[in-house]
Amino acid sequence: MTQRLSFLCLICALLPAFVARAQQDESASGEAVGPADPLVVRLHLMDGSVIAGKLSVKELEIQTRFGLLKVPIESLRSFTPGLASHPELGKQVDSLINKLGSTDYDERETAQKELTKMGEPVRPELEKHASDGDKERRERIKAILADLDESLEDEDSDAKREWLIPHDAVETSEFTAIGQIVTPQFSVTSKYGPLVIRLSDVRRGERALTKKRNTEKNLMVDGSNLAQRAMKETGVRVERGEKITITAEGSLGMTPWGNGTFSTPDGGSNFGWLVQGSIPGGMLVATIGKNTQYIKVGSRATIRAPKSGNLFLGVAMQQDYANQEFPGGYQVRVVVERK
Predict the structure, then answer these.
(1) Which of 97, 127, 223, 313 could disulfide-link 326, Cβ–Cβ 3.0 to 4.6 Å?
(2) Per-residue pLDDT averaged across 131-159, rounded?
(3) 19: number of Cβ within 10 Å
(4) What fold characterizes domain 87-157?
(5) What is the pTM of this model?
(6) How far is CA 259 from the centre of its chain?
(7) Which of the 8 DSSP states describes residue 82?
(8) Using one digit for the tens of pLDDT, what is the confidence trace for 185-243?
(9) Where are the alpha helices (DSSP H) in the chain?
(10) DSSP class of residue 231?
(11) CATH architecture for segment(s) 2-32+213-337
């Protein structure tokens, strides 16, 4: 009993200093920027990958209803190819929407899953068929749109800018031109050498207006930040594909298993499971956005962000014990290597 009381007293004595240090560190996030090469463009491709480098062309040509417009690359902010520049995708989306009303159940199911997986880019095409005369197709489109609305709650307005539009859009610092980008393909000189990119492979291109330094942040995740309660909002936004390194130390009092029992950020199977056989109680976990797609962290983890969104951290816990008190916490360091 004396040993258990000593343990709790030690936690109570150290916790204020621990919190103060973490709160002080939380303000030390670095997002400093510097000048960037005016000709470097970052290309977000349809398969989710990102390529940065100098374009082989000095200007981007777009045919508008008022004539041909030539935009110098150094004046470019971004460009977004529309459905007109993604003919194969347009045909695929139309085909899948038609299959939502198929007489074959498996075909309908597959089409719905594929359209849901495509995400926000197909929303405008789905909405065109929201009042479809076929009841089966109409109900499935409604279900897909509901799924997209739910997933969008975890994203910000950047996701909306990636929606496919009917025509190409070229944004400059002064105006946005709508029409058809003339160049069907171009080469990009990246650090891996020259690459030939087709316009139909590009979801969005943007000029690297600034160079971002890595983001570094220290914070504390305590017993109130259980996965089932309230994950800790780190204030760090990550972009898909960025490298995230998280390290953690400290201890959490596991009071349901006795006052002298504690867990490290790696957790332990003797504390039950958040995800059976994969994520034990007491383990530090992360999510990107407010969802339940938990990412194992532990005392150290290096992660490639599977999507863009805000980074959350929390403590895994078996549901039966999620209402208990867990004194102590983990001091966490987050480093994001910016693209």
Answers:
(1) 223
(2) 76
(3) 14
(4) Leucine-rich Repeat Variant (1.25.10)
(5) 0.48
(6) 38
(7) -
(8) 888 888 778 889 999 888 889 886 655 678 999 999 999 999 998 999 999 989 888 89
(9) 2-26, 87-99, 105-118, 123-128, 135-152, 157-160
(10) P
(11) Sandwich (2.60)
